Amino acid sequence: AYITSARISRARHLLRTTEHSITHIAGEVGFGDLCLFTKNFKKEIGLTPREYRSQMRNARKEIV
Predict the structure, then answer these.
(1) Can you say whether residue 48 is alpha, beta or left, with left for phi > 0 and alpha for psi between -120 and 50 degrees?
(2) Would you give the end-to-end CA distance of the chain in angstroms?
(3) Which of 18, 40, 46, 57 is the most buried (most CB within 10 A)?
């Protein structure tokens, strides 16, 4: 559970700060399977990686 949480935390950072594809980010943080990454991400965060990235982008636009 700790390792998965650390991977998701790193993925959140990459989703906010890079334009890398979600597939690339999943592999970079140690998930070889995109479906498994998405399932774990949604379980921990409550959003899919795509939804999370979209919300973070929208939040930045509102601040600016």
Answers:
(1) beta
(2) 36
(3) 40
Amino acid symbol at 45: I
Burial class of 28 by CB neighbour count within 10 A (0 to 12, 13 to 18, 19+): middle
Backbone dihedral angles phi then psi of residue 46, each to the nearest 5 degrees: 95, 0
pLDDT tens profile 8-56: 999 999 999 999 999 999 999 999 999 999 999 999 999 999 999 999 9
The residue written with tokens 């399932």 in the block is 39
* Cβ neighbours of 48 (radius 10 Å): 15
Dihedral Cα 2, 5, 10, 15, nearest 10 deg: 170
